[in-house]
Amino acid sequence: MKQFNKEIATELKAEQSQVFPYWKGRVGLYALLKAMEIGKGDEVIIPAFTCVVVPNAIIYLGAKPVYVDVDKETFNTTLDKIREKTTDKTKCILIQNTFGLATEVEEIIAFAKSKNIPTIEDCTHGFGGTYNGQPNGTFADASFFSTQWNKPFSTGVGGFVYLKNTAYLAKLNEINKDLVSPSSKEKFILSVLIKSRKLLLNPFTYWTLLKLYRFLSKTGLVVGSSTKEEIEGIEMPKGYFKGFSTVQAKAGIKNLKSLHQTLLLRKSNSKKYSEFLKSEGKTFVTQSLEENHSFLKYPILVKDREKFKTLAEKSSINLGDWFVSMIHPIEKNLELWHLDSDEFPIARGISEKILNLDTDTKTIDKVLNFLAQHKEEIL
Ligand SMILES: Cc1ncc(COP(=O)(O)O)c(C=O)c1O
């Protein structure tokens, strides 16, 4: 595990003692919020376009997630919108680099500093990428990352924290003493999944395996992205505060080796998507955003999502359905998570139309042909 931390620290140009791995990225967020002493009555600002595990971590501590609408071009929050939602109760501002794009990071942090509010970067999509030439996740007081299946590099499930502001170091170390170890069963299942994924997953098996994995995750039969409790309610699940394992560290060290090569592929494929979408008058990621984008996924907007997914499945094209709801994957009872979707028309509109293209594909021409064939379906 030391080796894993060391390699992450090198990548972030940081000290190893400031890197903390966890069973999942969300656990790292929870630990950070706790180290920042966020609790009852406090408010934490987050985007209205995220994963439900983000508001969950806040709610588990008795605090309240306060949502901010996103910008229609970047899918990220802006300083102006954050400022409007900042109150005396705001005790943390979270900045997310959605799909790998970091925007207005320095401006938001400067504003937060002026108000004495700590900041956390949600870099679950952005590891390895840069913002204005510096590694993502090295701007705010702290950042957390995910190394779950489809993230910049994978440990199966997993994640880590980089704590830049050492004022929280002692507290975080103290909190981490309560981490439980993953069970032998969990480690065994995870190692089988890591091995079989490599052997079995390809464009022809993608849709069948995705459906199977999601079904098994829901039933709790495999180690999944989210447990049933996390998506059905707001109670902290038993065993949530879980530490990292050697199974994850081993996979991570191996997969880290191709990180930069994959990042280059992601950027070059995404350029091709942009060129195509632009030439067809569709929504695309503008060139001015490319430098700060590591393109973990390439977002597209479609007229009829279910129809488009069926077409992709028929043509053996992988498609991601990340953030098809504002607090993915929750579609009902949003008020449980303090979210009123009417308040956030942009995030809601995007979440109703979004799908995501793979950017690490080695068969980009096949995907481009598919897009050209079904361009009437793209917005
Ligand atoms: C924006 C965002 N934040 C946080 C997370 C949580 O990461 P993890 O699954 O490692 O807990 C995810 C998961 O994909 C995410 O998309």
Write the layout of secondary structure elements.
Blueprint: H1 2-12, E1 19-22, H2 25-35, E2 43-47, E3 50-51, H3 53-60, E4 64-68, H4 79-85, E5 90-96, H5 105-114, E6 119-122, E7 130-131, E8 134-135, E9 142-146, E10 159-163, H6 169-176, H7 184-200, H8 206-219, H9 228-232, H10 246-256, H11 259-279, E11 297-301, H12 305-314, E12 319-320, E13 327-328, H13 345-353, E14 354-358, H14 364-373
Parallel strand pairs: 2-4, 2-5, 3-13, 5-6, 6-9
Antiparallel strand pairs: 1-10, 7-8, 9-10, 11-14, 12-14
Helix pairs in contact: 2-3, 2-6
This protein binds pyridoxal-5'-phosphate.
Task: From the structure above, extract its key features.
single chain, 379 residues, alpha/beta, Aspartate Aminotransferase, domain 1, 7-stranded mixed β-sheet, 3-stranded antiparallel β-sheet, globular, binds pyridoxal-5'-phosphate
Notes on the structure:
With 379 residues, the protein is α/β, with parallel strands linked by helices. Helix 2 (25-35) packs parallel to helix 3 (53-60) and helix 2 (25-35) crosses helix 6. The chain has a domain at 259-377: Aspartate Aminotransferase, domain 1, CATH 3.90.1150. The mean pLDDT is 95. 40% of the residues lie in helices and 15% in strands. The chain has a seven-stranded mixed sheet, with helices on both faces. The site of pyridoxal-5'-phosphate has 14 residues, from helix 2, strand 3 and helix 3.
